[in-house]
Every structure is written in C-alpha cells, then in structure tokens.
Amino acid sequence: MWIANILAGTIVLVLGIIIRAFNASGLIAGYNTASAEEKAEYDEEALTGFVGALLIAASAILLAGGLLAVAGAPGFVAGASWLLFLVVIIGGVVYLNTGDRFGNG
C-alpha cells in the first residue's frame, strides 16, 4: 500500500506544482472547456494558485502516509491517508465552487 501512496502522492505533487507555478489553467477540469466569456469572469491567477496549493497539500497527505508506513507505522496509516486525501479534495472542491471567491468582480 505504501507504494501506491508514494506514487500517487508524487504524481499529484507534480501536477500541483505545474498548475501553481506555470498558471496551467488548462489542467483544471471544467475551466479548460469554458468559453472565453466564461473564463473572463474568473481571476485565473488566483484560481490556479488555489488549485495548485490544494493539490500540493493533498499530495503531502499521501506522501506522509506512505513514508509513515515505510517507517513502520501500523498498516491502517496508509489507508487512512487516502481517506484524509479524499476529505481534503472534496472539501477543496466544495470551497472552490461555493461563493464568488475567484471572480474578477
């Protein structure tokens, strides 16, 4: 199980860094298919910054679970990290889609 944590955590970390550092809004689902008029309603820099930070934080959870499992923590730690990963991702998506947090106006 720790291998899955390390591998998935690394992939999510790389995606988070790419989105945050390079403002790669094309990697954000939904935003990449929006029309130019719809995209104009959002602050792209703030949006990519938040999504990148969310992915980096979520990857830290997976990596920590994998590293703790390697270090000899009980077996449920790696599995619990996946549950916490899902909670963070779902919470971040709910936060992202409620209110007008990333609008231009």
From TrEMBL:
Protein name according to UniProt: DUF3784 domain-containing protein
Keyword Transmembrane attached: yes
Organism: Methanoculleus nereidis
Keywords of the record: Membrane, Transmembrane, Transmembrane helix
Membrane-spanning segments: 6-34, 46-70, 76-96
InterPro entries associated with the record: UCP037672
